[in-house]
Amino acid sequence: MIVPSRKPPATPARIFTAAADHIERVGLYQGDHLWQPGRMGENAPCTVLHAWERGVRAARPGWSVRGEPWDIFRRALADSLVVLSNHINGRPVSGVRWRKLRLTEDAYRRTLLWCWGDAPERTAAEATAMIRAAAVPYLSGGGHAKHGCPALRNMV
After folding, report:
1. Of the candidates 76, 44, 43, 71, which has an alpha carbon nearest to the alpha carbon of residue 58?
2. How confident is the model at residue 39 (pLDDT cuts 50, 70, 90)?
């Protein structure tokens, strides 16, 4: 039996909004010592990468849902990582970068999120503003809730 999804369809805007809301609520963590027993979970400060991952989890369909919601989610997941890492980079990220480092595209883009948020003097307010700025094209309703992201076609 196919169970209908009770959540609205996954979009990069939903992912970005949940990520920015999370950083706003718990703060931005920086540094190498992320493991802090007693400060983990819902209230611990997080990295930009972790906040994006929280946004992904918030937009993910329920496990019992089958079919199209998962296809839409996978596209929103991929689009959101590309758009956010390109936004941080200030322009589309060149494939030459991850190939030279012998990384996958996904690993390189995730590393960009981690490193940007870990820059000295970076604040939670800056991280939140950056993520919300990346969401703007999706919030305008310019067809971005449909399959794939038209904005990405121009970035490749």
Report:
1. 76
2. low
pLDDT grade for 156, boundaries at 50, 70 and 90 = very low
Regarding pTM above 0.85, the answer is: no
Among 126, 115, 153, smallest CA distance to 137 is for: 153
Tokens of 62: 């329920």
The CB-based long-range contact list for 42-47 (8 Å cut-off, 24+ gap) reads 45/124, 46/22, 47/113, 47/114, 47/117, 47/118
pLDDT digits (tens, 9 = 90+) for 58-102: 988 887 778 888 889 999 999 999 999 999 999 999 999 889 999
Instruction: Please answer whether residues 14 and 57 qualify as being in contact, where contact means their C-beta atoms are separated by less than 8 angstroms.
Output: no
Q: Nearest CA to 111 among 124, 93, 128?
A: 93
Categorise residue 67: left if φ over 0, alpha if ψ from -120 to 50, beta otherwise: left
Identity at 73, one-letter amino acid code: F
Q: Residue 74: how many CB atoms within 10 A of its CB?
A: 12
